[in-house]
Amino acid sequence: MFLYALIFPIISIIAIIWFIGRYLNNKNSLSTVILWSIFWIFVSLFAIFPDFSNAFARIFGITRGLDFVIILVFVVLFYTILKLYFVIDKMQNNLNKVVKEVALKNEITLDDEEE
Known about the structure:
The chain is an all-alpha fold. Helix content is 83%, strand content 0%. The protein has five helices and no strands. It has helices spanning 4-24, 30-48, 50-59, 65-105, 110-114. It is elongated, with a radius of gyration of 24 Å. The model has no long low-confidence stretch (mean pLDDT 87).
């Protein structure tokens, strides 16, 4: 048995436990925990049973299992980047609102500058 077939399932279990812990501390949503748990389960299955990726690849019309795994990783990375983009965009909008509110509360008129 290859070393990665032993290491990846251990890493997957640790990652799933970590995501569940974050969910219990209200830092992650349930959908995030489910999505990442499914991802780590597939990582474990592909490490333990390499032919399993070939079966999935054929279902999606891809010739090799490694190609399927690489495409899957790209999809997960693009999803993560897109999600981060939306979070940053929302934070930037909230920051702009706060700055505008503070600026309006502390409005300085021309008369105040002369004194």
